[in-house]
Design goal:
Elements lengths: L2 H25 L9 E3 L5 H7 L8 E3 L6 E3 L6 E4 L3 E6 L2 E5 L5 E2 L5 E2 L5 E4 L2 E2 L8 E2 L4 E4 L2 E5 L2 E4 L6 E3 L2 E3 L6 E3 L5 E4 L1 E3 L5 H39 L1
Antiparallel strand pairs: 1-2, 3-19, 4-18, 5-6, 5-9, 5-14, 7-8, 9-10, 11-12, 12-13, 14-17, 15-16
Helix pairs in contact: 1-3
Length: about 240
């Protein structure tokens, strides 16, 4: 097969993966705490063409930068201002999120919007009511009495975090540590998605055009190869 087809096919596959990530980003532009993703090859496209075939990627990386804070005035809505994550107990183990839209179950346990227990520094948090005050350090007070403290964690290698649905899983290499003391919790706010819809749509259009260019190149090379073979057959 012509070497040019390998190069064109590699480019087409890379753009396809890029579009998959962008599609996911656009689908979650209104999802609280969502962090956009991008293929690592976006920063090294030239190298990818030189040394790879069939679009092998290094990884899909997550942009963990701060999303804008939106005021809700709900007492159980909290947003992290700065670096860090909330810890959550799920059926698959401890997972992490930036979505602080919490509520209480029938037993008074603080839970996420999908029903998983939000963890405090001493395990699950059980509250006797919703008249709650949450301070900047994550301390939860009811009638002036501390009822728990949100467990805020960070990672020395956040790039190792693995997305699982609306959460992040932390492999051993992620390096869990307590959140930076400068990290604050804002009660009555949620963190919006950090995806810029206009920028993501513009990038999607660029990726679609690039994908189309590569597929046309593949077809052109294939046509030229077929014609060359036919010409050889006629002169043989």
């Amino acid at each position: 097969m012509d070497k040019g087809i390998f190069v064109a096919l590699s480019g087409a596959v890379l753009q396809e993966r890029r579009m998959e990530a962008l599609t996911d980003n656009l689908a979650n532009v209104n999802t609280s705490g969502f962090k956009g993703q991008r293929p690592l090859f976006e920063d090294s496209m030239t190298d990818a063409y030189k040394v790879r075939t069939f679009g092998k990627l290094d990884d899909i990386v997550t942009d963990i930068s701060q999303g804008p804070l939106q005021r809700t005035e709900r007492k159980l809505d909290v947003a992290i201002k700065g670096e860090g994550f909330f810890a959550v107990e799920t059926p698959s183990g401890i997972r992490y999120t930036r979505d602080g839209s919490f509520t209480l179950d029938k037993d008074g346990n603080l839970i996420t919007r999908d029903g998983n227990a939000v963890l405090g520094e001493n395990g699950r948090i059980k509250l006797p009511g919703t008249d709650v005050k949450i301070d900047a350090a994550g301390g939860i007070n009811i009638n002036g009495i501390e009822a728990g403290r949100l467990k805020l964690v960070d990672f020395t290698n956040p790039g190792a975090l693995r997305r699982e649905g609306s959460y992040f899983a932390a492999p051993n290499g992620a390096g869990e540590v307590p959140a930076n003391p400068n990290t604050q919790v804002e009660q009555g706010y949620i963190e919006a998605s950090n995806v810029n819809a206009v920028r993501a749509m513009t990038t999607m259009i660029e990726a679609m055009r690039s994908y189309e260019t590569h597929t046309k190149l593949i077809q052109s090379i294939d046509d030229m190869t077929r014609k060359a073979v036919e010409e050889v057959g006629r002169t043989a």
